[in-house]
Amino acid sequence: MQDEPEVAVLRYGHRPGRDDRMTTHVGLTARALGADRVVFPDNAGQSQETVEDITGRFGGPFEVELTDALNATIRNWEGTVVHLTMYGERVQDVEGEIREAHREEPLLVVVGGEKVPFEVYEGADWNVGVTNQPHSEVAGLAVFLDRLFDGRELEREWEDADRQVIPMATGKKVVDPDEES
Ligand SMILES: C[S@@+](CC[C@H](N)C(=O)[O-])C[C@H]1O[C@@H](n2cnc3c(N)ncnc32)[C@H](O)[C@@H]1O
């Protein structure tokens, strides 16, 4: 988020067809819940297009990148690396230390798809479990980002949006923010 060290999310692995929706949702969740950037494997171009399209309509800033070098992205990260896994330390036990680290330097959050190789576990500063139960990369990422930002991400303002949802108890209202102001 603005005025804070960067938070990037790395989607580690993507099976075209089977993972399209999940990978897209990793990107949309990263964007909506305060990350600055998502990095997808280079075979996830379709998900990149979708997330960029949403950013174009609902605002940013938010970047989507593709890489053919997942391991190097982790290895060369200049900052803290958190890998979300059901086998990791409990998020409630380590969130304070991770928040402190993020005050000082950029944070890379790695989420898997199919089996994640052991070098990712070794390359991470923290392996973190959002519960130690199996669930999904989207759910794990959402809870982790909310813990990291302590709810501040819910107040985020969006720039250059064509559409803005007006919250209401019942019904749907979407406006062009330029016309509203
Ligand atoms: C289908 S799961 C694979 C489960 C895998 N055995 C693991 O290590 O968590 C895909 C991804 O969801 C995320 N995930 C699943 N359960 C999680 C949990 N309890 N805590 C944190 N992340 C989780 C991890 O990033 C994982 O790579």
TrEMBL record:
<keyword id="KW-0819">tRNA processing</keyword>
<feature type="binding site">
    <location>
        <position position="84"/>
    </location>
    <ligand>
        <name>S-adenosyl-L-methionine</name>
    </ligand>
</feature>
<dbReference type="GO" id="GO:0005737">
    <property type="term" value="C:cytoplasm"/>
</dbReference>
<dbReference type="InterPro" id="IPR029026">
    <property type="entry name" value="tRNA_m1G_MTases_N"/>
</dbReference>
<feature type="binding site">
    <location>
        <begin position="112"/>
        <end position="116"/>
    </location>
    <ligand>
        <name>S-adenosyl-L-methionine</name>
    </ligand>
</feature>
<keyword id="KW-0949">S-adenosyl-L-methionine</keyword>
<keyword id="KW-0489">Methyltransferase</keyword>
<dbReference type="Pfam" id="PF01994">
    <property type="entry name" value="Trm56"/>
</dbReference>
<dbReference type="InterPro" id="IPR029028">
    <property type="entry name" value="Alpha/beta_knot_MTases"/>
</dbReference>
<comment type="similarity">
    <text>Belongs to the aTrm56 family.</text>
</comment>
<keyword id="KW-0963">Cytoplasm</keyword>
<comment type="subunit">
    <text>Homodimer.</text>
</comment>
<dbReference type="GO" id="GO:0002128">
    <property type="term" value="P:tRNA nucleoside ribose methylation"/>
</dbReference>
<comment type="function">
    <text>Specifically catalyzes the AdoMet-dependent 2'-O-ribose methylation of cytidine at position 56 in tRNAs.</text>
</comment>
<dbReference type="GO" id="GO:0106059">
    <property type="term" value="F:tRNA (cytidine(56)-2'-O)-methyltransferase activity"/>
</dbReference>
<dbReference type="InterPro" id="IPR002845">
    <property type="entry name" value="tRNA_mtfrase_aTrm56"/>
</dbReference>
<protein>
    <recommendedName>
        <fullName>tRNA (cytidine(56)-2'-O)-methyltransferase</fullName>
        <ecNumber>2.1.1.206</ecNumber>
    </recommendedName>
</protein>
<keyword id="KW-0808">Transferase</keyword>
